[in-house]
């Protein structure tokens, strides 16, 4: 069911921003009932964000790849769904994709660092570095998507990783010790 709903919103977002898409449009396109939609998602923004979060969780969280490879896979995912992401980032209001991805990326970086370094907590300095890196990365991501993705995903990933704070670079590239 979730995939049917995602396919509907994905198709609609090839031509429309999320704020131009109604729940009724998604329901008509997916041929799924309103009750079923709300059983899985609280609103269209939740559906839009679910797909990205599912990809990260399934494909990247438990990855043994180094951080540059993880960034490259994430950039390729976005690159292959260019119109979807161009339309997703155009909406700037409450529940925006940018707001979602900023928080999600901070949590993902923190969880990856903790997992790969057998840490229990994150220091104030490390939290600042994560927040700083994530804010910059999201702004670069927005610029990249809006510039018609002139850099390849691999070039973007290399630049992001080469300019990452040192305190993060070593920790995110550490070999994964445990998986949660």
From TrEMBL:
- GO molecular function terms listed in the Swiss-Prot or TrEMBL record: DNA binding
Pfam families the record matches: TetR_C_8, TetR_N
UniProt keyword Transport present: no
Q: What positions does the domain HTH tetR-type occupy?
A: 1-59
**Matches recorded under Gene3D superfamilies:** Tetracycline Repressor, domain 2 (1.10.357.10)
Looking at the keywords, is Cell membrane present? no
Organism domain of life: Bacteria
User: Which keywords does the record carry?
Assistant: DNA-binding
Where does this protein bind DNA? Answer: 22-41
What InterPro entries is this protein classified in?
A: Homeodomain-like_sf (IPR009057), HTH-type_Tx_Regulator (IPR050624), HTH_TetR (IPR001647), TetR_C_Firmicutes (IPR039532)
Stated name of the protein: TetR/AcrR family transcriptional regulator C-terminal domain-containing protein
């Amino acid at each position: 069911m979730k995939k049917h709903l995602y396919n509907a919103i994905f198709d609609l977002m090839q031509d429309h921003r999320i704020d131009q898409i109604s729940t009724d449009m998604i329901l008509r396109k997916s041929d799924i009932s309103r009750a079923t939609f709300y059983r899985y998602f609280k609103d269209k923004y939740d559906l839009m964000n679910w797909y990205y979060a599912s990809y990260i969780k399934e494909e990247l969280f438990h990855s043994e790849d180094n951080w540059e490879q993880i960034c490259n896979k994430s950039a390729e995912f976005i690159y292959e769904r260019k119109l979807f992401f161009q339309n997703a980032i155009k909406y700037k209001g409450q529940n925006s994709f940018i707001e979602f991805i900023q928080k999600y990326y901070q949590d993902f970086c923190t969880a990856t660092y903790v997992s790969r370094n057998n840490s229990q907590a994150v220091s104030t300095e490390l939290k600042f570095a994560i927040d700083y890196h994530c804010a910059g990365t999201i702004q670069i991501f927005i610029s990249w998507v809006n510039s018609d993705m002139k850099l390849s995903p691999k070039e973007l990933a290399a630049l992001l990783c080469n300019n990452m704070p040192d305190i993060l670079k070593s920790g995110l590239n550490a070999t994964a010790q445990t998986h949660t």
